[in-house]
Design brief:
Elements: H1 2-16, E1 31-33, E2 38-40, E3 44-45, E4 50-57, E5 65-72, E6 78-83, E7 87-93, E8 97-105, E9 112-114, E10 118-122, E11 132-138, E12 143-145, E13 152-160, E14 166-174, E15 182-187, E16 192-196, E17 202-211, E18 216-218, E19 222-226
Parallel strand pairs: 2-10, 12-19
Antiparallel strand pairs: 1-4, 3-4, 4-7, 5-6, 5-8, 8-9, 8-10, 11-13, 13-16, 14-15, 14-17, 17-18, 17-19
Amino acid sequence: MMRTVVLFICFFAVFGCKKKDDPKPPEQAQLLFPDKNSECTTGVDQDATTSRVTFRWQRSDNTDSYELRVTNINTNTVQTISTPNTTSSLPLLKGQPYSWLVRSRNNQVDNTISSETWSFYNSGSRTTFAPFPAEILTPNMSEKVFKDINNEVTLSWSASDLDNDIESIEVYFSEQNPPTDLEATLSNSSSSLKVSVVSGTTYYWNVITKDAEGNATNSGVYTFSVL
């Protein structure tokens, strides 16, 4: 009898008191539409200046709700909406460039995670388009990096224009924020540049994309530190 009781206590200790797994943070949502670096022509007219655009993304694991965040690139005006669904719509000005992302949330944890950021033009009366702001690829924002054997770090980006008429890329790079030194003016096909750096120093840089119509867009300022 005593042996049975002992076995029961051991069983209860192992299985009855097993701790529940901690809730998992949400996974990153994958964007679907509007397409990256495109002109969105599916907006439903609201009036002469506005159309309602529907956004879609894939469902992500461990996610209870999503926050859609849409920014007018020209005015920096931000619209947000929360939804448990993988689609939502917002009224947007016609002929304006926008960027958008989706933030995943889990009600049981504080962690959130954002999707990639995509850009597009909302269709309107425009016949020419300014370039999209260059997408910074490396170094990542606030990344700590090692210089190479030549005491250099490679900056890289991706530039896009619906008209395919990018004429030049200007790279500003310095220890000041915002960067004040024009490091190089490059051809439209350029997507990287090596810059000289010093260990223990923080640098700031941005990319200005210019097209044949005289339009120019700014990537925004990025920073990195050299180890």
